Amino acid sequence: MKAEEMLFNKQRIVFILVMTIFFCFSSVSRAQHSKEISLSFYPGFTPVNFEKALGYPDDYMEDWSQFYYSFDLRGFLSSEIPFQIGTDLAWQRLYYAYYVVPYGPSPVYREFNVSTVSLMVLVRYSVNKFFVVGGAGIHSFNSGISPAICLEAGYMINAGANLKIPVSLRINPVFADGTPIPISVGRGASYTFGQKE
Predict the structure, then answer these.
(1) Residue 180 and residue 50: Cα distance in Å, rounded?
(2) pLDDT tens digits, residue range 63-85?
(3) Which of 52, 83, 95, 187 has its CA 20 to 30 A from that of 28?
(4) Is residue 21 one of the residues assigned to a domain?
C-alpha cells in the first residue's frame, strides 16, 4: 500500500508540474514574438555524500565515479523584454559507486549507477549575448522523486540568422539523499522560429 501511495504522489506531482508549465506557456504565448528550442550537452562532476546517498560506509567502496553528464531539451518563449519563461526536460547521469561489503564467509557486491530524468520550469534573463537562468523542478529516480533547482550563466554565440550556440556554466543541486550537486559546463544548439518582423 505504501508503494502504491508513493507512486500516486509521484504521478500527482509530475502532473501538477506539467500542467503548470502548460498554463504558463498558454497564458504568455500570445504576447511573445518568437519561440526557441535548444538541445545541449552538459559534462561535469557531482560532489555527493556517498554514505548518506547509498547507505554503505565509504570503507567498502571499491570503485566510484563522480563524472556527470546530461542531455537537455529546452524551450523558451522569447520577446523584446529581457525575461523569458521556459522549460527543461533532461536525462542526467549523476554518479557511480561499487561496493564490496563483508557478509559472513562471502562478500556482497553492490553497484549503483545513479541517473535521473528531470523536468524544470525556467526563467532566463538576457542582456546582449549574456544570459542567466534560474529554475526549479523535480528529478525522477528509480526509487522516487526529489526537488531540484538550477542556476546557470552563459553566453550565446551567433551561428546564423536563427541559429545560436549557447555556452554556459551550471549548478543544479538535487535535494535527495546525500545531496548531489552537479556542476557542469554546457554547449548546444538553439534555434529560434516564429519571429515577427
Answers:
(1) 9
(2) 999 999 999 999 998 777 788 99
(3) 187
(4) yes
pLDDT digit string (tens) for 91-135? 999 999 999 999 888 899 999 999 999 999 999 999 989 999 999
Which domain, by its residues, includes 84?
Answer: 2-189
* String of DSSP letters for the chain: -HHHHHHHHHHHHHHHHHHHHHHHHHHHGGG-SEEEEEEEEEEEE----HHHHHSS-GGGEEEEE-EEEEEEEEEEEE-SSSEEEEEEEEEEEEEEEEEEE--TTS-EEEEEEEEEEEEEEEEEEEETTEEEEEEEEEEEETTEEEEEEEEEEEEEEE-SSSEEEEEEEEE--B-STT----EEEEEEEEEEE----
- Could you give the number of structural domains in the chain? 1
List Cβ neighbours of 12 (8 Å cut-off, separation of 6 or more). Answer: none
pLDDT digits over 44-53, tens only?
Answer: 999 999 999 9
Q: Would 32 be classed as within a structural domain?
A: yes
Tell me, what CATH number does 31's domain have?
A: 2.40.160.20
